[in-house]
Amino acid sequence: MDIRGAIANERVEFAALLDGLTEQQWKAPSLCEGWRVREVAAHMSFGFRTRRGQVLRELLRARGRLHRMTDRCARRDAAAMSEGELAAALRDNARHPWTPPVGGLTAALGHDVVHGLDITVALGHERRVPLERVRLLLEGVTPRSLRFFGADVTGVSLRADDVEWSYGAASGTPVSGAAQDLLLVAFGRALPPGRLRGEAADRFSATTRGRPQGEAGEIRQRP
Fold it and tell me: How crowded is residue 202: how many other Cβ atoms within 10 Å of its Cβ?
């Protein structure tokens, strides 16, 4: 797959989706704990809009705590930018070469796809990420990546309904669902109830993980 092309298409498509959101939807909670749709959208384009020197200064200000830095910057930019500006920041940077500190282009695609799902799944939006993009990201799931994002799938066998992919021991308790929902599980997200099936599905539901989605508190690892 042309990963650069997939990244560009994902950004353009998602910018168009953002253009169609209502004012209330922009204020709605996302799957990222403590962030509304506005904060997630602001975070998605932070790497495009911020020079490396500025990022380092922000990190120093946060005393080296990456998640504190990204949280503060997302809240600041979400308050300062209009909805149109937040969407345009993705569209106008569709082919920006930014990548996360580790993971290269695949991680950049994961950043866009997963944060997009943080918004659409929380809103109950019908958008489906093209399966070839989701498949590529699922193929990169490893024990190390699961630990990085705080995803505990011990004793579970994840099985996608719409693409040939599974993860975990065959003897594990089956948890099945759409590939993009299982991708969210692998990135440590708690999903709205009813999106997954299986005896252990509730382990990955927002209603059984303690804090409701959108409530401020300790921030999990974000891609």
Answer: 13
